[in-house]
Amino acid sequence: MKLSAAQLRERAAEARTHYARCDLCAHDCRVDRTRGPAGVCHEDDGLWLAGAGVHFGEEPGLVPSGLVLIGGCNLACVYCETFEFSLERRGLVRTSPEELAALLLDLSRRGARNANFVTPTHVLPALLAGLAVAREHGFALPVVWNCGGYESAAALRLLEGIVDIYLPDAKYGDDAKALELSGCKGYTTALRESLREMVRQVGPGGVIVRHLVLPGGVAAPEAVMLLVAAVSKQITINVLSQYRPVHRAAHFPLITRGAGPSEVRTAVAAAVSAGLENVLLDGRRIEASGPKPEA
């Protein structure tokens, strides 16, 4: 994070104006969230947290990571692993900028290497306000923006000089499936534009893309990998094999089972074939004889 506390306060104030005609993600709802919950995410202008802690389950270069779990989401994935707080908003605590700052400082004292904001897109202004307060009290950890890849360029530009590592999902290479399974129109265009802006800010080495393998090739991994590689072949891609049919997945026949080893291998092969130079499988680097999905 390169900005001073004063600069962060200015950026937070600028960001807050976006709530009144919200364009913080690619839904581009243009609703006034200062008057209460509105838009596709049905969120107001407050910050609600599900929890926070030092976490060791992220990519190896990020751990121990200071996870901040944010309530709500700008996506509506029918297979959401965190649906309890991301979609159903269970157990959330409304959090002020001062309370967020105290939490961030505590994570730093506990040995976290970064502040990792999970599903942060829809509350970007509130997070910047908390970071400004934390910075005033000496907070200096790198900031990780752990998002769904369905961003807006206008919002991402507000993060320049603040975010050190972008950690977006690349969920789909097929717009029809993105709309059906996550409620997103024009997902691939938004993802491409988002990745370009992220790379412009932090370089390809500061972008780690996650791709969760869905069964039956539903997410079109070949198209995903080509899209990412077209932005930069130096972007790190982490192929994830952990998919399980949770939340509402049982209502969608194509995704009612886990992804099989051959389907995971297909996604990894697509990444290599696309020319991506830094390929991980569940966080482990892929070499010529690298890790294979378990049978």
Strand content: 15-25%
Give me the CATH superfamily. Answer: Aldolase class I
Q: Quickly give the structural class.
A: alpha/beta
Order of helices and strands: HEEHEHEHEHEHHEHEHEE
Multimeric organization: single chain
**What's the CATH class label?**
Alpha Beta
Main β-sheet: number of strands, strand sense, barrel status? 6 strands, mixed
Strand order of the largest sheet: 3-1-2-4-5-6
Work out the helix count. 9
Low-confidence stretches: none
Average predicted confidence as pLDDT: 96
> Helix share of residues?
25-40%
Number of strands: 10
Please specify the SSE layout and strand pairing.
Elements: H1 5-16, E1 48-55, E2 65-70, H2 83-86, E3 93-94, H3 97-109, E4 115-118, H4 124-136, E5 143-147, H5 153-157, E6 165-168, H6 175-182, H7 187-202, E7 208-212, H8 221-231, E8 236-240, H9 261-273, E9 278-281, E10 284-285
Parallel strand pairs: 2-4, 4-5, 5-6, 7-8, 8-9
Antiparallel strand pairs: 1-2, 1-3, 9-10
Helix pairs in contact: 1-4, 3-4, 7-8, 8-9
Polypeptide structure, described:
By secondary structure, this protein is α/β, with parallel strands linked by helices. The protein has one domain: Aldolase class I (TIM Barrel, Alpha-Beta Barrel), CATH 3.20.20.70. The chain contains nine helices and ten strands. β8, α9 and β9 form a beta-alpha-beta unit. The protein is globular and about 50 Å long.
